[in-house]
Design goal:
- The complex is a heterodimer of chains A (337) and B (118).
- Chain A is α/β, with parallel strands linked by helices.
- Chain A has 10 helices and 15 strands.
- In chain A, 34% of the residues lie in helices and 23% in strands.
- Chain A is globular.
- Chain A starts with a strand and ends with a strand.
- With 118 residues, chain B is an all-alpha fold.
- Classes of the chains: A alpha/beta (337), B mainly alpha (118).
């Protein structure tokens, strides 16, 4: 029996890895959102002085990890590992950011669950005693993601009301063995859930069952329920997906009161994004700019952060395949009393 | 008067496309509408049903995508008349060649001098 595994899918980190530093960099639209003042850096335009949006996204990721390192007075060489991912082909931004860091690097792809996946893997590396300091980054960009998964924004295609707006933003954190900050106590690794949705313009509905499956398993594995958390927050289900998750919860007799979604929190309704935000950056920037601060201030003591990812590829979309979805959950606690 | 008629007909053609996307239970994308409209325009034109719309609504019928299908079909018919059956293959392209070339030239022009804003 694996020593630190509880139940079917949950990992326990008894050494409590600590998130000691974090940073978020976002685009202008996110800067105008409800959390606008909390981000470390808001870009004035989506190109960030670069020639292409892909270069701009890579720059954002680099900014965010550099800021996170700087806040803690660390250099890239101080990191034992760097884990990063994004939404582009061959996780371009992560690879090109790692090119500048000169640190042992593991690329991650979990679509929009990448940030949560990174937290899980960082926890494993620290708990396993093979690292003392690990950096994690994830990024997304509205214009690069539309080009990657749907059609280039220059084409001016109409977005259906089920669509979500990919967040232009990147988040990074430093997790360490010792220090002060937020502790990581458990992680639940998700399974692929595919209920046959094939609409790439409605990912929230496709991902909600995956979030529900991971949540249910998490509760069963740890013998906990929704009242053990001050907040249970999903990554980017958006308005539609969040509604579906609430329905699924009610069916199981779970009260949805303490649930929220980063995709709903990141934009205000006036910003007309249709179903809210999405993307690797979405859950990342909301966690680093908003939720971690609330844990630090004692507003929350323990939260469950569930990154949700739709693992479609542009090719499978065109071939009419359904969308495999995944959700990874991590438990974050303020050190407190 | 012609302006009003063009507005009404062109608007109606576009409203049908919008309703097809919004009210049908299938996942209809703008790409489906594009291909569907060109094909429908060509079929209607071949059956002689599209020319009356052009006569009534002018640019309201020729500017939407179905008008492109109409040009393709009429070009093919003309091609057959002047060059025999093989003309059906080239006629459509000949009739639409100016429009296509204009799209390429202007596309290149704007791609060179403007930058997409997203």
């Amino acid at each position: 029996m694996a020593q630190n595994k509880i139940g079917k899918q949950t990992l326990h980190f008894p050494s409590t890895p600590i998130i000691t530093s974090w940073a978020s960099v976002v685009g202008p639209m996110e800067g105008k959102g409800p959390l606008g003042e909390k981000y470390d850096l808001v870009l004035t335009d989506t190109l960030a002085g670069e020639k292409t949006w892909e270069k701009a996204e890579q720059k954002m990721m680099q900014f965010s990890i550099e800021l996170a390192l700087e806040k803690r007075n660390l250099l890239p060489k101080d990191l034992d590992f760097y884990l990063a991912g994004d939404l582009l082909n061959q996780i371009t931004c992560a690879n090109f950011t790692a090119r500048f860091l000169n640190t042992p690097f593991l690329g991650l792809y979990g679509a929009c669950s990448t940030f949560a996946e990174g937290l899980c893997m960082a926890g494993v590396l620290l708990e396993g005693g093979v690292a003392e300091k690990v950096g994690v980054s994830a990024s997304s960009h509205h214009d690069t993601a539309e080009k990657q998964f749907r059609t280039p924004t220059e084409l001016g295609d109409q977005r259906p009301m089920t669509a979500q707006w990919t967040v232009t933003g990147s988040a990074s954190i430093i997790i360490e063995k010792t220090g002060t900050g937020i502790i990581l106590t458990h992680a639940t690794i998700g399974k692929i859930i595919d209920l046959g949705n094939s609409n790439a313009q409605d990912l929230g509905s496709a991902m909600a069952p995956a979030a529900f499956d991971t949540l249910k398993t998490h509760f069963e594995d740890l013998g906990r329920n929704e009242n053990d958390y001050d907040l249970i927050v999903t990554g980017d289900l958006g308005l539609l997906g969040h509604g579906i998750l609430k329905e699924l919860l009610k069916e199981k007799g779970i009260s949805p009161d303490r649930f929220n979604d980063c995709g709903i929190m990141v934009y205000s309704p006036e910003q007309d994004t249709h179903c809210g935000g999405s993307g690797c950056g979405c859950s990342g920037v909301v966690l680093t700019a908003h939720l971690i601060e609330r844990l630090l201030s004692g507003y929350y003591h323990r939260i469950l952060f569930i990154g949700t990812g739709a693992l479609l590829s542009p090719l499978t979309s065109l071939q009419g395949e359904t969308i495999p979805c995944i959700a990874h959950a991590v438990v974050l606690e303020s050190r407190g009393e | 008067m012609m302006l009003l008629k063009a507005f009404i007909l062109g608007g109606l053609i576009c409203v049908i496309g919008q309703l097809l996307m919004d009210l049908t239970p299938f996942n209809i994308t703008p790409a489906h509408i594009l291909v569907g409209y060109v094909t429908t325009g060509a079929v209607l034109s071949g059956l002689g049903l599209y020319q009356p719309l052009v006569d009534w609504g002018g640019a309201g019928a020729t500017v939407p995508l179905s008008g492109f299908g109409h040009s393709l079909a009429q070009g093919a018919i003309e091609g057959v008349k002047s060059k025999g059956l093989l003309g059906a293959l080239g006629g459509g392209l000949q009739a639409t060649s100016i429009g296509v070339a204009v799209a390429i030239v202007f596309g290149l022009f704007f791609a060179t001098f403007a930058r997409p804003k997203g």
